[in-house]
Design brief:
This protein is mainly α and 383 residues long. The chain has a domain of 265 residues. It has 17 helices and 2 strands. Strands 1-2 form a two-stranded antiparallel ribbon. A hairpin with a 6-residue loop joins strand 1 and strand 2.
Length: 383
């Protein structure tokens, strides 16, 4: 008789949610919006970086664009979980402002430190970088001698993990972006688009090139389980050991493990804070301001602290499966919704660029663009 476990159930549900149809939907939607916005993510790259540190002095509430912008030691996991839950409790009880302040300090610092280490490893292995980039390109188009046959599963895996990395299409990014102090929503939209460059094209690419340069990885066919490439470092299934071993080739295995563990802890901590913020904001929207809201928020705080401890003692595979289910379900809903709302979004972008061409500081007026239910912007334009 087949044993039913949390792992098997989560794995089955994850495969249903992340069917090939969702991968195709993500890729086609990305291409559609790129064409309709005339590749705004490329055209406005310089402005994205500029707006990252811009604060609208006219806006008295909310958080800055930067705050809105900002996932191996021998310790029992349960103790780590309790410690993280304790620190997290101190932060989230302090409210949204404290969450934003902690995130804007911790996230950039750890990202910068991590990138510096990756660059140092690459400098020490500079001679193999051209071949690494060549292998990446061949693998991407399916012409690699060994890995060409798994391009379909590779794309699917990349889309799944890419959404984790930059939240594009997931629907959570706009929640924190909506709290930013800007005079026009396109400003914060450009800032959020810039985060994709940092998260995926910079941090993730640096990680991939570093791992491939020192060959601290294994490649397995997701469908058959066949090992297509086995590293000489005796590594298992894909996890953070690939990155830790790569850094360890420069600093030593023990130090490499510690550095990656610390970096991962900070990245994971800021991610948990972000998800808590999303959940709290949603509860405030659903329950309004009153006793129900306060009670719901305290229930949420207790649940997320318990979840942190529970997750620390469960296998990583279960956590990934549960996460995939949640992210995939949100992506299905969110991508369909943003496709339906695309006319309003495109009108808003054109309005922003028109005001800039006229030499004006763009200000958003939803009524002029026939955009309904924009309560916050309607109230601000009345003032």
């Amino acid at each position: 008789m087949l044993a039913i476990t949390i792992e098997s159930i989560s794995q089955t549900l994850s495969s249903w949610v992340w069917s090939p149809a969702l991968v195709v939907l993500c890729l086609c939607s990305a291409l559609y919006f790129s064409i309709r916005t005339r590749f705004v993510q490329v055209r406005r790259f310089g402005e994205m970086a500029k707006l990252l540190f811009y604060t609208d002095k006219m806006q008295k509430t909310g958080i800055s664009s930067f705050q809105a912008f900002a996932n191996s030691v021998h310790v029992a996991p349960v103790y780590v979980g309790v410690a993280v839950a304790g620190v997290l409790g101190l932060v989230i009880i302090g409210g949204v402002t404290r969450i934003a302040k902690v995130a804007q300090i911790v996230a950039p610092f750890m990202a910068l430190l991590y990138i510096i280490l990756a660059i140092v490893v690459l400098i020490c292995n500079y001679s193999v970088i051209p071949s690494v980039l060549s292998d990446m390109l061949k693998g991407a188009v399916g012409t690699h001698d060994i890995f060409g046959g798994i391009i379909g599963s590779t794309i699917a895996w990349g889309v799944k993990r890419g959404i984790y990395s930059n939240e594009a299409g997931q629907g959570t990014g706009p929640i924190v972006a909506g709290a930013a102090k800007v005079s026009h929503p396109v400003k914060q939209g450009l800032v959020q688009a810039f985060s994709v460059y940092v998260d995926t094209l910079l941090v993730c690419t640096a990680t991939a090139v570093m791992i491939m340069a020192v060959k601290t990885y294994n490649v397995m066919d997701a469908n058959t389980g066949e090992v297509l490439f086995a590293s000489s470092y005796n590594l298992g299934a894909p996890d953070v050991s690939y990155t830790a071993t790569a850094i360890g080739t420069l600093l030593g295995a023990d130090l490499g493990n510690i550095i990656v563990a610390v970096a991962l802890a900070f990245f994971a901590f800021t991610t948990i804070m972000a998800y808590y913020y999303y959940a709290e904001t949603s509860l405030v929207y659903l329950f309004g301001n009153g006793r129900k809201e306060h009670a719901a928020i305290w229930v949420l705080r207790i649940c997320i602290l318990v979840a942190v401890i529970f997750g620390s003692v469960k296998e990583a595979r279960v956590a990934w499966n549960v996460g995939d289910i949640g992210v995939g379900a949100m992506a299905w809903i969110n991508i369909i919704v943003i496709l339906l709302l695309s006319p309003q979004a495109l009108r808003t972008l054109k309005d922003y660029e028109r005001q800039q061409k006229e030499g004006r500081e763009p200000e958003f007026n939803p009524r002029k663009l026939d955009i309904r239910n924009a309560d916050f912007w309607d109230d601000s334009t009345k003032d």
